[in-house]
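REQUEST
  id: r-88c1
  op: predict_structure
  target: Uroporphyrinogen decarboxylase
  payload:
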Amino acid sequence: MSKIFVDACFGKETPYTPVWMMRQAGRYLPEYMEVRAKAGNFLNLCHNPEMACEVTLQPVDILDVDAAILFSDILVIPDEMGMDLSFVKGEGPKFSDPIKSEADLDRLIGGEEAASKLTYVYETIELIKQKLADDKALIGFTGAPWTLATYMIEGQGTKTYNICKKMMYSNPDLLHKILRKVTDVVKIYMEKQIEAGVDVVQVFDSWAAAIEPGMYDEFSWKYMVEISEYLKEKYPHIPVILFPKGIPAFLDKVYGNFDVFGVDWSTPMKFAKERLGDKYVLQGNMEPCRLYSKEATTKCVEVIQETMQGKRHIFNLGHGILPDVPVENAKHFINECHRVSGKK
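RESPONSE
  id: r-88c1
  status: 200
  body:
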């Protein structure tokens, strides 16, 4: 059976515009919180294929989104490379052993060896594919090398990125070595996700906006393009979505062999369409906080539909859904996307 989401990723005509939400499997759903409580902690949930499968499928059943996105975390990659990851309540992810030197990098495993340790992710994908409806797509994902590197160097989330950026300007060779090692793992990790059964892959560069526009290609985009081109050469039937958050200044310089460009909420859809709409299918880009108001949601969905005219577009938020959004409002968003784009 053809999947509307996959067809839309390739820019084909579809009966309506498909929709999914970043972070759609997550804390705003009471059903997710029940499974999370059973798991004991977030990492346990990521490591348990049955539970990860269950929470991946929840938004498909509850909201009627057109694609499921694999439940996992971007930081399982550095974790399996040999870094010590923990999730601290109220503070988020932390590495006790951030990379400060080449010796720190050298102690980490890379390539096939690291990617092969992520068996629980591949098992989760296989389970999801057994249970997911034939007309729904499954999206696999990874963090972009730059976003992963920020956590690996800073040791945790950061508002200033000063440790990473100090390395960028004072020791760029070391930063490129870190990015190279991570990129080589990511390429094989994505390949193994595809072999396990995902229909589409997305690369999230959540912290793209931390890099000044003139440096973005060198320290992030070229690595993302390398990953996408590696995958497109081996798996031309698998769409690749690239999502760099917060880089409207870079749109004129976007290049590479991939299928869908994720537009974040700070970039006007009309602006993105003018610059990229002929080259790539566009995904996005409602401001996630509009989900607090059904009226504000409807207004935005109608404007995006008017801009895109149902062509070369996938509805989504311009970043992830927030934990305190009412489930009814999330359903309203999905229903409105389907309504304005003509789903009967």
